[in-house]
């Protein structure tokens, strides 16, 4: 199932994308327009959502007639993120000289975990504000994001994948200069609107095995990033287990799994985003997440 948060006639709503690629309003079933509520109580709503989606007379809205928001416009806490989680990207990052703690080609021995604040989230089509990086070093990072559906810590007896609710895409937009001068990555990656998310949240049963998927990023139509999720240094179960070993995971938590090679920083000289640039993060079955820089 593909779930969305959208705005229609100035009201926020929850929806599901039906087989005709139209949006069926499911807000009344959930009794809330908050995706966190839907995720936490999904087992209670699932059958009703499936039933309404199959009703031929169910009113459905054309996607062009609504404004899609991020599937989770406000996560309940920070988004978990993973740094340097593709081999070739770890290499380009080390080679760039930007990370003084990393030797060239350095591959982390353990997952690097940081967070982006929920206020960084924006939706498909929203603009990225270049004035927030006065150093003109805004970079893109196409990433698959895992959305969790279960509460608890992850023990050795657990299948970490049983915590997965679904998947979406994020662009881990970054001010490289702020990332560098402040050492910790939160400031360079946590600026308002620096976490485009969407366009849909695909449930785990529909998404299938993550390892078979390819993620891409285009800037103004030019392919910059393309990688298989099979190239992740630390796979999704390892990431969930690492974070959940000592931190209680919550329904609606998001883990951005890291970005492949091809970021602007990896070029010599770097090719950072400029005003007017259009960035598209894409994956089959999830769709296109398109945002412009202003
Ligand atoms: Mg990233």
Protein described:
- It is built from 8 helices and 19 strands.
- The chain has 294 residues and is of the alpha+beta class.
- The chain is globular and about 60 Å long.
- The two termini are 33 Å apart.
- The mean pLDDT is 94.
- It binds magnesium ion.
- Magnesium ion binds at residues 81, 141, 143, 172, 258-259.
Topology diagram in text:
Layout: E1 2-8, E2 11-17, E3 22-25, H1 27-30, H2 35-40, H3 42-54, E4 60-62, E5 67-68, E6 79-83, H4 87-96, E7 112-116, E8 121-122, E9 127-128, E10 138-139, E11 142-148, E12 164-171, E13 174-175, H5 176-181, H6 186-189, E14 195-203, H7 204-207, E15 214-219, E16 222-228, H8 236-244, E17 254-256, E18 278-283, E19 287-293
Parallel strand pairs: 6-17, 8-14, 9-19
Antiparallel strand pairs: 1-2, 1-5, 1-14, 2-3, 3-4, 6-7, 10-13, 11-12, 11-17, 12-14, 15-16, 15-18, 18-19
The structure holds magnesium ion.
Magnesium ion binds at residues 81, 141, 143, 172, 258-259.
Quick synopsis:
With 294 residues, this protein is α+β, with helices and mostly antiparallel strands. The chain has eight helices and 19 strands.
Looking at this protein, list some descriptive labels.
294 residues, alpha+beta, 2 domains, five-stranded mixed beta sheet, 19% helix, globular, binds magnesium ion
Largest sheet: 12 strands, mixed
Give the domain tally.
2
User: Can you tell me the CATH topology of the largest domain?
Assistant: Fumarylacetoacetate hydrolase, domain 2
CATH first level of the largest domain: which class?
Alpha Beta
**Share of residues in helices:** 10-25%
**What is the terminal separation in angstroms?**
33 Å
